[in-house]
Amino acid sequence: MGVVAPGFPEFVANPRRNAGFSPGNISSRSCRWIHSTRFVRSSVAPSIGARDPEASYETITAEVVESKSVGLLMLNRPQVLNALSEVCMREVVAALKGFDALPEVGAIVISGKGKAFAAGVDIKELKNKTMVDSFVNPVLDQWNQVSRIRKPLIAAVNGYALGGGCELAMMCDIILVGEKAVFGQPEIKIGTIPGMGGTQRLIREVGKSRAMEMILTGERFMDAKEACQRGLASRVIEGTNEELVAEAVAMAKNISGMSRPAVIMAKAAVNAAYESHLEEGVKREQAFFGATFGLEDRSEGMAAFFEKRKPNFQNK
Ligand code: CAA
Protein backbone atom coordinates (compact mmCIF):
# COMPACT_ATOMS: atom_id res chain seq x y z
CA MET A 1 0.00 0.00 0.00
CA GLY A 2 1.64 3.21 -1.15
CA VAL A 3 -0.09 6.13 0.54
CA VAL A 4 -1.24 6.22 4.11
CA ALA A 5 -3.42 9.15 5.01
CA PRO A 6 -3.71 10.75 8.44
CA GLY A 7 -6.40 8.88 10.33
CA PHE A 8 -6.09 6.00 7.90
CA PRO A 9 -8.03 2.99 9.20
CA GLU A 10 -5.64 1.01 11.33
CA PHE A 11 -6.38 -2.41 9.93
CA VAL A 12 -6.00 -1.24 6.34
CA ALA A 13 -2.86 0.74 7.03
CA ASN A 14 -1.14 -1.83 9.16
CA PRO A 15 -2.50 -5.34 8.73
CA ARG A 16 0.28 -6.80 10.88
CA ARG A 17 -1.20 -5.13 13.96
CA ASN A 18 -4.17 -7.40 13.40
CA ALA A 19 -2.24 -10.60 13.75
CA GLY A 20 -4.67 -12.99 15.37
CA PHE A 21 -7.68 -11.13 13.95
CA SER A 22 -9.96 -13.83 12.64
CA PRO A 23 -13.68 -14.55 12.65
CA GLY A 24 -13.05 -17.46 14.98
CA ASN A 25 -11.67 -15.44 17.84
CA ILE A 26 -14.66 -13.13 17.81
CA SER A 27 -17.67 -15.28 17.24
CA SER A 28 -16.55 -18.05 19.54
CA ARG A 29 -18.89 -18.30 22.51
CA SER A 30 -15.92 -19.17 24.68
CA CYS A 31 -14.46 -15.74 24.02
CA ARG A 32 -17.24 -13.32 24.87
CA TRP A 33 -15.18 -10.21 25.52
CA ILE A 34 -12.67 -8.95 23.07
CA HIS A 35 -9.66 -6.92 24.18
CA SER A 36 -10.59 -3.53 22.87
CA THR A 37 -7.00 -2.37 22.43
CA ARG A 38 -6.60 -4.57 19.40
CA PHE A 39 -9.47 -2.97 17.53
CA VAL A 40 -9.96 0.53 18.85
CA ARG A 41 -8.10 3.67 17.92
CA SER A 42 -7.28 6.26 20.55
CA SER A 43 -10.18 7.86 22.41
CA VAL A 44 -10.57 10.61 24.95
CA ALA A 45 -13.18 8.82 27.00
CA PRO A 46 -12.21 5.61 28.79
CA SER A 47 -12.87 2.92 26.26
CA ILE A 48 -15.72 0.41 26.44
CA GLY A 49 -14.56 -3.00 25.16
CA ALA A 50 -16.00 -4.70 22.10
CA ARG A 51 -18.43 -7.45 22.95
CA ASP A 52 -19.65 -10.48 21.05
CA PRO A 53 -22.48 -8.69 19.27
CA GLU A 54 -24.86 -11.61 19.68
CA ALA A 55 -24.43 -11.92 23.44
CA SER A 56 -27.59 -11.23 25.43
CA TYR A 57 -28.27 -7.67 26.51
CA GLU A 58 -30.59 -5.91 28.92
CA THR A 59 -31.52 -2.79 26.94
CA ILE A 60 -30.83 -3.62 23.29
CA THR A 61 -31.01 -6.56 20.92
CA ALA A 62 -28.12 -7.21 18.56
CA GLU A 63 -27.80 -9.83 15.83
CA VAL A 64 -26.00 -10.45 12.58
CA VAL A 65 -28.41 -10.91 9.68
CA GLU A 66 -28.34 -11.35 5.88
CA SER A 67 -25.81 -14.20 5.90
CA LYS A 68 -23.87 -12.38 8.62
CA SER A 69 -23.18 -9.38 6.37
CA VAL A 70 -25.20 -6.85 8.41
CA GLY A 71 -25.20 -5.97 12.11
CA LEU A 72 -28.68 -5.08 13.38
CA LEU A 73 -28.95 -3.24 16.69
CA MET A 74 -32.37 -2.39 18.16
CA LEU A 75 -32.78 -0.12 21.18
CA ASN A 76 -35.13 -2.08 23.38
CA ARG A 77 -36.67 -0.06 26.22
CA PRO A 78 -40.01 0.72 24.56
CA GLN A 79 -41.74 1.31 27.93
CA VAL A 80 -39.63 4.50 28.34
CA LEU A 81 -39.46 5.35 24.62
CA ASN A 82 -35.94 3.83 24.44
CA ALA A 83 -34.51 6.42 26.85
CA LEU A 84 -30.73 6.08 26.74
CA SER A 85 -29.58 4.87 30.15
CA GLU A 86 -25.96 4.31 31.13
CA VAL A 87 -26.37 0.54 30.75
CA CYS A 88 -27.87 1.15 27.31
CA MET A 89 -24.91 3.35 26.35
CA ARG A 90 -22.41 0.69 27.40
CA GLU A 91 -24.34 -2.01 25.55
CA VAL A 92 -24.72 0.03 22.35
CA VAL A 93 -21.02 0.93 22.25
CA ALA A 94 -19.88 -2.63 23.06
CA ALA A 95 -22.17 -4.21 20.45
CA LEU A 96 -21.16 -1.70 17.76
CA LYS A 97 -17.49 -2.37 18.46
CA GLY A 98 -18.23 -6.09 18.24
CA PHE A 99 -19.85 -5.61 14.82
CA ASP A 100 -16.97 -3.38 13.73
CA ALA A 101 -14.52 -6.15 14.59
CA LEU A 102 -16.44 -8.94 12.80
CA PRO A 103 -14.90 -9.34 9.33
CA GLU A 104 -18.14 -10.66 7.75
CA VAL A 105 -20.16 -7.61 8.78
CA GLY A 106 -19.95 -4.79 6.24
CA ALA A 107 -22.48 -2.28 7.59
CA ILE A 108 -24.65 -1.75 10.67
CA VAL A 109 -28.27 -0.69 11.18
CA ILE A 110 -29.50 1.02 14.37
CA SER A 111 -33.20 1.38 15.12
CA GLY A 112 -35.63 1.40 18.04
CA LYS A 113 -38.38 -0.96 19.14
CA GLY A 114 -41.84 0.47 19.74
CA LYS A 115 -43.04 3.95 18.92
CA ALA A 116 -39.73 5.85 19.32
CA PHE A 117 -36.19 5.73 18.03
CA ALA A 118 -35.10 7.23 21.38
CA ALA A 119 -36.62 10.07 23.45
CA GLY A 120 -33.24 11.17 24.78
CA VAL A 121 -30.87 10.35 27.59
CA ASP A 122 -32.66 8.78 30.56
CA ILE A 123 -33.81 11.80 32.58
CA LYS A 124 -34.31 9.59 35.66
CA GLU A 125 -30.53 9.05 35.74
CA LEU A 126 -29.66 12.62 34.73
CA LYS A 127 -31.75 14.30 37.38
CA ASN A 128 -29.43 13.43 40.29
CA LYS A 129 -26.18 14.30 38.53
CA THR A 130 -24.10 17.23 39.73
CA MET A 131 -21.77 19.55 37.86
CA VAL A 132 -18.86 17.82 39.58
CA ASP A 133 -20.05 14.45 38.19
CA SER A 134 -20.01 15.87 34.70
CA PHE A 135 -16.30 16.75 35.05
CA VAL A 136 -15.05 13.89 37.18
CA ASN A 137 -17.06 11.15 35.48
CA PRO A 138 -18.23 12.51 32.12
CA VAL A 139 -20.35 9.50 31.29
CA LEU A 140 -21.94 10.95 28.15
CA ASP A 141 -18.45 11.20 26.59
CA GLN A 142 -18.67 7.48 26.01
CA TRP A 143 -21.27 8.07 23.30
CA ASN A 144 -18.50 9.68 21.20
CA GLN A 145 -17.21 6.19 20.59
CA VAL A 146 -20.17 5.61 18.24
CA SER A 147 -18.71 8.14 15.82
CA ARG A 148 -15.42 6.20 15.79
CA ILE A 149 -17.00 3.02 14.38
CA ARG A 150 -15.30 2.48 11.02
CA LYS A 151 -18.06 0.60 9.20
CA PRO A 152 -21.09 2.50 7.88
CA LEU A 153 -23.91 3.07 10.38
CA ILE A 154 -27.45 3.46 9.08
CA ALA A 155 -30.09 4.85 11.45
CA ALA A 156 -33.68 3.79 10.76
CA VAL A 157 -35.70 6.43 12.63
CA ASN A 158 -39.42 6.30 13.26
CA GLY A 159 -41.24 8.17 16.01
CA TYR A 160 -39.35 10.37 18.44
CA ALA A 161 -35.63 11.04 18.02
CA LEU A 162 -35.27 13.66 20.74
CA GLY A 163 -32.29 14.98 22.67
CA GLY A 164 -29.68 12.22 22.83
CA GLY A 165 -31.86 10.19 20.41
CA CYS A 166 -31.51 12.89 17.75
CA GLU A 167 -27.80 13.11 18.55
CA LEU A 168 -27.33 9.33 18.26
CA ALA A 169 -29.05 9.38 14.84
CA MET A 170 -26.75 12.21 13.75
CA MET A 171 -23.68 10.16 14.74
CA CYS A 172 -24.76 7.65 12.09
CA ASP A 173 -23.68 7.98 8.45
CA ILE A 174 -27.07 7.65 6.77
CA ILE A 175 -30.52 8.32 8.26
CA LEU A 176 -33.63 6.71 6.76
CA VAL A 177 -36.94 7.84 8.25
CA GLY A 178 -40.42 6.47 8.62
CA GLU A 179 -43.40 8.77 8.13
CA LYS A 180 -43.77 9.36 11.88
CA ALA A 181 -40.15 10.40 12.53
CA VAL A 182 -39.78 13.49 14.72
CA PHE A 183 -36.41 15.13 15.45
CA GLY A 184 -35.88 17.62 18.26
CA GLN A 185 -33.50 18.93 20.92
CA PRO A 186 -35.77 19.70 23.89
CA GLU A 187 -33.03 19.79 26.56
CA ILE A 188 -33.46 23.54 27.15
CA LYS A 189 -36.94 22.81 28.50
CA ILE A 190 -35.45 20.75 31.31
CA GLY A 191 -32.78 23.33 32.08
CA THR A 192 -29.85 21.89 30.19
CA ILE A 193 -28.41 21.75 26.67
CA PRO A 194 -27.57 18.96 24.20
CA GLY A 195 -24.63 16.94 25.49
CA MET A 196 -23.92 14.33 22.82
CA GLY A 197 -22.74 16.58 19.97
CA GLY A 198 -26.14 18.09 19.10
CA THR A 199 -25.02 21.73 19.12
CA GLN A 200 -22.19 20.87 16.72
CA ARG A 201 -23.85 18.40 14.37
CA LEU A 202 -27.34 19.93 14.03
CA ILE A 203 -25.96 23.23 12.70
CA ARG A 204 -24.01 21.33 10.02
CA GLU A 205 -27.14 19.37 9.06
CA VAL A 206 -29.84 22.02 9.00
CA GLY A 207 -28.12 25.42 9.16
CA LYS A 208 -27.73 27.91 11.99
CA SER A 209 -31.18 29.45 12.13
CA ARG A 210 -33.13 26.17 12.19
CA ALA A 211 -30.64 24.58 14.60
CA MET A 212 -30.87 27.57 16.95
CA GLU A 213 -34.66 27.50 16.75
CA MET A 214 -34.77 23.85 17.75
CA ILE A 215 -32.11 24.13 20.47
CA LEU A 216 -33.23 27.45 21.99
CA THR A 217 -36.99 26.80 22.02
CA GLY A 218 -36.80 23.08 22.73
CA GLU A 219 -39.85 22.87 20.47
CA ARG A 220 -40.30 23.39 16.74
CA PHE A 221 -39.56 19.72 16.15
CA MET A 222 -38.70 18.54 12.63
CA ASP A 223 -40.87 15.96 10.87
CA ALA A 224 -39.77 13.32 8.37
CA LYS A 225 -40.50 15.41 5.30
CA GLU A 226 -38.60 18.45 6.53
CA ALA A 227 -35.69 16.29 7.71
CA CYS A 228 -35.33 15.00 4.15
CA GLN A 229 -35.75 18.43 2.57
CA ARG A 230 -32.98 19.83 4.75
CA GLY A 231 -30.63 16.89 4.26
CA LEU A 232 -30.73 15.60 7.84
CA ALA A 233 -32.23 12.34 6.50
CA SER A 234 -31.92 10.68 3.09
CA ARG A 235 -35.49 9.57 2.38
CA VAL A 236 -38.84 8.61 3.84
CA ILE A 237 -39.79 4.94 3.75
CA GLU A 238 -43.56 4.58 3.76
CA GLY A 239 -45.16 1.74 5.69
CA THR A 240 -44.52 0.06 9.01
CA ASN A 241 -41.49 0.17 11.29
CA GLU A 242 -40.58 -3.32 10.10
CA GLU A 243 -40.60 -2.14 6.49
CA LEU A 244 -38.35 0.80 7.41
CA VAL A 245 -35.86 -1.49 9.15
CA ALA A 246 -36.01 -3.96 6.23
CA GLU A 247 -35.13 -1.14 3.82
CA ALA A 248 -32.20 -0.07 6.01
CA VAL A 249 -30.99 -3.68 6.23
CA ALA A 250 -31.24 -4.02 2.43
CA MET A 251 -29.12 -0.89 2.03
CA ALA A 252 -26.60 -2.20 4.57
CA LYS A 253 -26.42 -5.52 2.71
CA ASN A 254 -25.78 -3.69 -0.54
CA ILE A 255 -22.93 -1.68 1.04
CA SER A 256 -21.59 -4.88 2.58
CA GLY A 257 -21.16 -6.31 -0.93
CA MET A 258 -18.67 -3.56 -1.83
CA SER A 259 -14.93 -3.73 -1.18
CA ARG A 260 -14.66 -3.41 2.62
CA PRO A 261 -11.47 -1.29 2.65
CA ALA A 262 -12.85 0.99 -0.10
CA VAL A 263 -16.05 1.51 1.96
CA ILE A 264 -14.06 2.34 5.08
CA MET A 265 -11.89 4.79 3.16
CA ALA A 266 -14.95 6.43 1.55
CA LYS A 267 -16.60 6.88 4.97
CA ALA A 268 -13.41 8.33 6.47
CA ALA A 269 -12.99 10.69 3.50
CA VAL A 270 -16.58 11.99 3.73
CA ASN A 271 -16.17 12.43 7.48
CA ALA A 272 -13.02 14.45 6.83
CA ALA A 273 -15.24 17.01 5.08
CA TYR A 274 -17.78 16.84 7.88
CA GLU A 275 -15.22 17.18 10.66
CA SER A 276 -12.56 19.50 9.21
CA HIS A 277 -12.00 22.42 6.89
CA LEU A 278 -12.31 22.04 3.13
CA GLU A 279 -8.60 22.21 2.32
CA GLU A 280 -7.71 19.59 4.92
CA GLY A 281 -10.68 17.42 3.84
CA VAL A 282 -9.69 17.51 0.16
CA LYS A 283 -6.11 16.53 1.09
CA ARG A 284 -7.39 13.57 3.04
CA GLU A 285 -9.69 12.54 0.21
CA GLN A 286 -6.78 12.62 -2.24
CA ALA A 287 -4.67 10.47 0.08
CA PHE A 288 -7.48 7.93 0.43
CA PHE A 289 -8.15 7.99 -3.30
CA GLY A 290 -4.48 7.22 -3.96
CA ALA A 291 -4.61 4.46 -1.38
CA THR A 292 -7.43 2.66 -3.23
CA PHE A 293 -4.93 2.07 -6.06
CA GLY A 294 -3.09 -0.27 -3.72
CA LEU A 295 -6.22 -2.46 -3.45
CA GLU A 296 -6.69 -5.66 -5.42
CA ASP A 297 -10.41 -4.84 -5.20
CA ARG A 298 -9.81 -1.65 -7.20
CA SER A 299 -8.18 -3.62 -10.05
CA GLU A 300 -10.93 -6.25 -9.86
CA GLY A 301 -13.73 -3.62 -9.86
CA MET A 302 -12.39 -1.85 -12.93
CA ALA A 303 -11.66 -5.10 -14.78
CA ALA A 304 -15.19 -6.36 -14.03
CA PHE A 305 -16.67 -3.15 -15.45
CA PHE A 306 -15.07 -3.74 -18.83
CA GLU A 307 -15.80 -7.47 -18.76
CA LYS A 308 -19.48 -6.61 -18.04
CA ARG A 309 -19.67 -8.85 -14.97
CA LYS A 310 -20.21 -8.43 -11.23
CA PRO A 311 -16.93 -7.73 -9.36
CA ASN A 312 -15.65 -10.43 -7.03
CA PHE A 313 -14.29 -8.35 -4.14
CA GLN A 314 -11.88 -10.04 -1.73
CA ASN A 315 -11.64 -7.11 0.67
CA LYS A 316 -7.95 -6.76 -0.11
N1 CAA B 1 -35.98 9.69 30.06
C1 CAA B 1 -36.65 8.89 30.89
N2 CAA B 1 -37.93 8.51 30.70
C2 CAA B 1 -38.53 8.95 29.58
C3 CAA B 1 -37.88 9.79 28.66
C4 CAA B 1 -36.54 10.16 28.93
N3 CAA B 1 -35.82 10.93 28.09
N4 CAA B 1 -38.76 10.08 27.67
C5 CAA B 1 -39.90 9.43 27.95
N5 CAA B 1 -39.76 8.75 29.10
C6 CAA B 1 -40.76 7.90 29.77
C7 CAA B 1 -41.85 8.72 30.44
O1 CAA B 1 -41.43 9.15 31.73
C8 CAA B 1 -42.98 7.73 30.48
O2 CAA B 1 -42.76 6.84 31.56
P1 CAA B 1 -44.00 6.46 32.55
O3 CAA B 1 -44.94 5.68 31.65
O4 CAA B 1 -43.35 5.64 33.60
O5 CAA B 1 -44.58 7.74 33.01
C9 CAA B 1 -42.79 6.92 29.19
O6 CAA B 1 -41.45 7.14 28.78
C10 CAA B 1 -43.70 7.37 28.06
O7 CAA B 1 -43.54 8.76 27.89
P2 CAA B 1 -44.75 9.81 27.89
O8 CAA B 1 -45.88 9.29 28.72
O9 CAA B 1 -44.20 11.14 28.24
O10 CAA B 1 -45.16 9.74 26.35
P3 CAA B 1 -45.86 10.87 25.47
O11 CAA B 1 -46.19 10.23 24.18
O12 CAA B 1 -46.93 11.55 26.23
O13 CAA B 1 -44.70 11.99 25.24
C11 CAA B 1 -42.47 12.69 24.68
C12 CAA B 1 -43.57 11.64 24.48
C13 CAA B 1 -42.90 14.04 24.07
C14 CAA B 1 -41.25 12.18 23.92
C15 CAA B 1 -42.16 12.87 26.18
O14 CAA B 1 -41.97 11.59 26.75
C16 CAA B 1 -40.95 13.67 26.48
O15 CAA B 1 -40.97 14.89 26.41
N6 CAA B 1 -39.82 13.00 26.83
C17 CAA B 1 -38.58 13.66 27.20
C18 CAA B 1 -37.86 14.23 25.98
C19 CAA B 1 -36.60 14.94 26.39
O16 CAA B 1 -36.61 15.92 27.12
N7 CAA B 1 -35.44 14.46 25.90
C20 CAA B 1 -34.14 15.00 26.22
C21 CAA B 1 -33.53 14.26 27.38
S1 CAA B 1 -32.06 14.97 28.00
C22 CAA B 1 -30.87 14.55 26.85
O17 CAA B 1 -31.11 13.81 25.92
C23 CAA B 1 -29.52 15.11 27.16
C24 CAA B 1 -28.57 15.09 26.00
O18 CAA B 1 -28.72 15.74 25.00
C25 CAA B 1 -27.37 14.33 26.06
TrEMBL record:
<dbReference type="GO" id="GO:0004300">
    <property type="term" value="F:enoyl-CoA hydratase activity"/>
</dbReference>
<keyword id="KW-0276">Fatty acid metabolism</keyword>
<dbReference type="InterPro" id="IPR018376">
    <property type="entry name" value="Enoyl-CoA_hyd/isom_CS"/>
</dbReference>
<keyword id="KW-0456">Lyase</keyword>
<dbReference type="InterPro" id="IPR029045">
    <property type="entry name" value="ClpP/crotonase-like_dom_sf"/>
</dbReference>
<keyword id="KW-0443">Lipid metabolism</keyword>
<dbReference type="GO" id="GO:0005739">
    <property type="term" value="C:mitochondrion"/>
</dbReference>
<dbReference type="InterPro" id="IPR014748">
    <property type="entry name" value="Enoyl-CoA_hydra_C"/>
</dbReference>
<dbReference type="Pfam" id="PF00378">
    <property type="entry name" value="ECH_1"/>
</dbReference>
<dbReference type="InterPro" id="IPR001753">
    <property type="entry name" value="Enoyl-CoA_hydra/iso"/>
</dbReference>
<comment type="similarity">
    <text>Belongs to the enoyl-CoA hydratase/isomerase family.</text>
</comment>
<dbReference type="GO" id="GO:0006635">
    <property type="term" value="P:fatty acid beta-oxidation"/>
</dbReference>
<protein>
    <recommendedName>
        <fullName>Probable enoyl-CoA hydratase, mitochondrial</fullName>
        <ecNumber>4.2.1.17</ecNumber>
    </recommendedName>
</protein>
